[in-house]
Predict the structure.
Amino acid sequence: MNLMDKAIAYVSPQAGIKRAFARKTVESLNSGYSHYGASDSKKSVVSWDSESLSSDEDINENIESLRERSRDLYYGAPIATSAIKTVRTNVVGSGLKCKPKINYKYLGMSEEQAREWEDKTEFEFKLWAESVHCDAQRQNNLYELQQLAFMSWLMNGETLAVLPMIKRIQLPYDLRVMLIESDRLVTPPGMLKDNVSAGIETGSYGEIIAYHIANKHPKGKNSFDVKYKRIEKYGKKSGRINILHLMESERIGQTRGIPFLAPIIIPLKQLARYTEAEIDAAVVSSFFTVFIENKTVQESGAFGQSDGVYTNDDDDTEEDDEPVNLKLGPASVIELEEGQSVKEANPSRANNGFDSFVDAVCTQMGAALEIPKDVLLKTFNRSYSASRAAMLEAWKMYKMRRNWLANDFCQPIYAEFLFEAIAKGRITAPGFLTDMAIRKAYCGAEWSGPAQGQIDPLKEVVAAEKRVNNGFSTRTQETLELTGGDFKTNVAAAKMENQLMIEAGLKEGDSAK
C-alpha cells in the first residue's frame, strides 16, 4: 500500500480493502498481451479501431460495398484486372476437363470393364457438356460456364448456380446449369426472421437451409417489380442438391463470400489514382508550351485573335464573344503584335521513382493475393531460379483453387449428370440409385486444367524423365503437368503415327532392324 491507501485504510478499513483489491485486479489485467498487441495506451494504437463482430455482421453488412468496389477496380484498375484474369487463366483456362476414374475394385469390375465404362461415360458427358444446351440460357458450354462462374467468384466473392431440368427438342439430357449473380441473393423486404441474413436461411446448427433469390437484379431498371423465390438447398424427398453456392469460407459461421480483391481494395484504388495522375502529368509534360507576354496594353485581340492575320472571313461582321482556343501547330510561323514576346514553359515531369514505388506496392498486394509480383506484373526479368520460384509459388495457389472449384462446382454437376444418365438408361451402373457407397464409387473423376508451363522446357523435361525413372512420378502425371494432355491418348496416337511413317517409308519397322 502507498501512503494514501494506508491513510484511507486507517480511517475506513473496508474502503482500504476495496482499494487494495481493485489495484491487484488492474495489475493482473495489465499483463501479457496487454503490454503489446492488446495495449490501448501505446501511441501507435490509440486511434486503432479494431472492433470485430460475428462473421455475418462483419461480412454481410459490408458485402454490397465490397462487391461494387471490387467490380469497379476490375473495370478500371490494370493491376486488379491482371490479378483476376491471371488467376482465372491459370486455374480454369479453357475449362477443367473431366476424366472418369471409378473405384472398379469396390464395384467388382475388372480393369478392362472399368476402362470401357469410363470411356462410355466420358463420351456421354462430352455430348452434354460441350454443347451450349447444357446452359439454361443457351449461351455457354460447361467449360465456358466454369470460366464465368470462377470470374464471378473472383469479382463478387461468390457465385450461385441452380440445376433445373428443362426439356428441349432432340436432346438426350434435361439437366441444365443456370448461373445467378450474387447481387440477387438478398433478404426479401419485410421479412423479419432471426435465421435469415443477407438472403440465406439457416437452421439450428447454423447449416444453410434455403436461399432467397430475386428474379432480377434488385438495382436494375425494372427493380420495382422484383419477386423473390425461396430455394431449398437440398430436396426434401430426394436429398439431392438444388443450388450450388460457390464461396470460400474464412471464418467459422460465415454464410456469404467476400471478393478476391477485398484485402487490397484501398491500396489498389490509391495505386490506380497515382498511376492515372502520373500518366496525365507525362502527357502534359510532352507538350511544348509557350506563353505570350504583353509589354504594352494592346487594343487588338490576344495572341491568335488579331484582325485579318489568321482568318479569311473579311466579310464576317458578326462579333464572336466565345473564347478562342489557341493551339500551336507543327512548323507554324505566327506573326506577333507589337509589344508581344514569347516565353517558353517546359513542365518537365520525369518521376524516376515511379517504377520502384509501383513494384514495392505490387509486391505487398501480390503477397496478400498469393501472386508473386513477377507473375502479377508479367515481368520475368530476373534469373531463371527466381522466375521459376515465383511461378511455383503461384502454382501452389492455382492448384488449391482448381481443386476447390472441381470439388464445389464441377463434381456436383457431374454427379447430377450421372444421376440422369443412369436413370434414363444411357449409362449402366447397378446400385447407383439405391446405395450411397456404390454411387460414390461410380462418381469418381479427375478434373484437369491448363498445364503449369515452363521457363526452360529442356530442363523441365529432363527433370520429369528423372522423376519417372526413379519412381517419384508416373508418365501419366508428368504428361498432365507438362502439357495438360493424356498419356494413354498420346501413346495411342504415337502408335498410329509410327505405323503411318513405316508405311510411307520414312521409318524402319522393328522387323527391319
Notes: The radius of gyration is 35 Å. Residues 303-313 have pLDDT under 50 and may be disordered. Residues 5 and 16 are 6 Å apart (CA to CA). Residues 67-295+335-450 form one domain.
